């Protein structure tokens, strides 16, 4: 029995999320379809999940969630997702409090939660990963003013840390284009771009980000950008005149000399670690290629 294009698209989507032990609602299956052959309607997806014999042999369901067979028990996956959701809620509460401090810094133009936190799929040891957009000529001073107090309070990633804050991705608001960071068939970066959860957005920066990175819609055509939710919005706090572009060179010299060896060795050799006055990306353990290859192997075994 050959799978139809719709069945293949549904299965590919479930296969991708199976790598992260993430069971999906039917709406999520439609929303996050990866490069569907055409624009399938929500009703078509629902009907296929209900009636397709081919899909029923490949999937399992529980309590309104559907997942791929062969990657664990559906009941356990649903319980796991619920537990991780509750942990993410706690993390967002901490992040909302931290946003009061972010607002004080005039160099900070926008902040969003990313990675597992943007999926509400974290454990207590998971980082509170952030993507921070700053004014040009303020990237190094902003990083220093953000990292220093969290390091002093031992709220940075380290062994045994709970709810640590990770400041590993900064960009200036004139360098929002992520095209240069893409790998071949970089599905992870497309998901990353579409799932940013804004917690601070001055001057509509994330609207500009979405407009600048329209390429992600060619991978995920049904996914729209996330708006800032009132639950994640801290009360407005005036910024203080404590930053100037004149101090950025000194902040750069101080921090570059203290970067870990693994960051300095890999800097600007690929898209994993980028160190410049427009972007600071410290993902030395970037697993995008691994996820892409696992996904291709998984799909190849079933289609």
Provide structural commentary:
By secondary structure, this protein is of the alpha+beta class. The protein folds into 2 domains: about 5-70; about 90-225 and about 240-285, Beta Polymerase, domain 2 (2-Layer Sandwich), CATH 3.30.460. It contains 12 helices and 8 strands. The protein has helices spanning about 5-20, 25-30, 40-50, 55-60, 75-105, 140-150, 185-195, 205-210, 215-220, 250-255, 260-265, 290-300, and strands at about 60, 65-70, 110-115, 130-135, 165-170, 195-200, 275, 280. The strands form 2 sheets. A 6-stranded mixed sheet has the order 6-3-4-5-8-7, covered by helices on one side. Strand 1 and strand 2 form a beta hairpin. It is elongated and about 65 Å long. The termini are close together. The mean pLDDT is about 95.
Which structural traits does this protein have?
elongated, 303 residues, two-stranded antiparallel ribbon, Beta Polymerase, domain 2, alpha+beta, 12 helices, 14% strand
Q: What are the low-pLDDT stretches, counting only 5+ consecutive residues below 50?
A: none
Span of the ends, CA to CA: 11 Å
Sheet with the most strands? Answer: 6 strands, mixed
- Provide the residue-averaged pLDDT: 94
Beta content: 5-15%
Please name the CATH topology of the largest domain: Beta Polymerase, domain 2
- Rg of Cα set: 20 Å
């Amino acid at each position: 029995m050959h799978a139809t294009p719709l069945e293949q698209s549904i299965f590919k989507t479930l296969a991708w999320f199976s790598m992260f032990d993430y069971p999906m609602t039917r709406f999520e299956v439609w929303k996050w379809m990866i490069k569907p052959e055409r624009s399938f309607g929500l009703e078509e997806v629902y009907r296929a999940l209900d009636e397709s014999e081919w899909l029923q042999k490949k999937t399992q369901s529980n309590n309104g969630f559907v997942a791929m067979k062969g990657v664990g028990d559906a009941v356990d996956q649903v319980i796991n997702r619920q537990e991780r959701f509750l942990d993410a809620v706690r993390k967002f509460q901490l992040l909302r409090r931290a946003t009061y401090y972010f607002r004080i810094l005039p160099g900070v133009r926008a902040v969003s939660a990313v990675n597992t936190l943007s999926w509400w799929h974290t454990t207590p040891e998971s980082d509170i990963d952030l993507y921070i957009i700053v004014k040009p000529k303020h990237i190094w001073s902003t990083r220093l003013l953000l990292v220093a107090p969290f390091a002093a309070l031992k709220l940075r990633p380290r062994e045994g840390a709970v709810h640590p804050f990770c400041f590993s991705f900064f960009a200036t608001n004139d360098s929002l284009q992520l095209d240069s960071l893409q790998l071949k068939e970089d599905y992870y970066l497309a998901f990353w771009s579409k799932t940013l959860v804004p917690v601070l957005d001055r001057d509509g920066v994330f609207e500009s980000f979405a407009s600048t990175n329209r390429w992600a819609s060619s991978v995920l055509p049904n996914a729209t950008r996330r708006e800032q939710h009132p639950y994640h919005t801290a009360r407005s706090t005036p910024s203080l005149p404590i930053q100037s572009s004149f101090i950025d060179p000194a902040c750069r010299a101080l921090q570059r000399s203290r970067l870990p060896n693994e960051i300095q060795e890999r800097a600007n050799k690929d898209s994993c670690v980028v160190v410049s006055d427009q972007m600071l990306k410290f993902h030395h353990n970037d697993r995008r290629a691994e996820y892409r290859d696992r996904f291709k192997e998984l799909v190849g075994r079933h289609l």
